[in-house]
Amino acid sequence: MYRKISIVCLLVSVTLLLSFDKNNSGTIPSKSKENHAGGWKTLFNGKDLTGWRTYQNKEQNSWEVVDGQLHCKKDATKHCDILTLDEYDNFELEVDWKIDKASNSGIIYRCNEKHGAPYETGPEYQLIDDAGYPEKLEDWQKSGSDYAMHPPSKLAAKPAGEYNHTKIVVKGKHVEHWLNGVKVVEFEFWTPEWKKLKEAGKWKDEAEYGMLTKGHIDLQDHGGGVWFKNIRVRSL
Questions:
Q1: Please, which residues bridge with residue 97 across strands?
Q2: What CATH architecture is 40-235?
Q3: Cα–chain-centroid distance for residue 231?
Q4: Which of 127, 87, 118 is nearest to 208 (CA)?
């Protein structure tokens, strides 16, 4: 009798343990599942800089979170870019951003930290106040451009202070820059045309510029005055 009871108790215990393990196994991945719905991973949680750090781990006091927005402020004494902890090769990135009047920033991708600045290795999707910037802008300096390489086919940015939606698609050699639903830049890495542009322009002395097939995603601190939200990425 006692042996039967012991066996029953053992079976009940094992059943409960398996049930707990099954239920508990879903609690940890639940956040991951939420972040990866449709393959997307949220890069900014709206609360803090989890998942990000400064370029080359430098000190900074320019980045803050305000009402669920990632803000790079102007009135700071230690300016520095921030980049993702993870590196990405083939990906689609979406982000909402707005720029303050006369301000300038960018999103740099496939970059590393071997040089003084991330733009020495990674291409830059330009963010700027096209209409109100105090200096004359070349076409390749305007919002949505592949900075110093490919100008946007159309000026699609909203006025300073209004949010824009950006999409960057990178797959192998192929790159697309989208701004507010308009594809403004499309190019292929390492083609004769691409090499000619590089050798004739700003990056001619940067041997590693545009050559990486994988790297960090970087948000540029160009003196502050830029806001970000709804940042997400998925691998392609």
A1: 164, 228
A2: Sandwich (2.60)
A3: 7
A4: 118
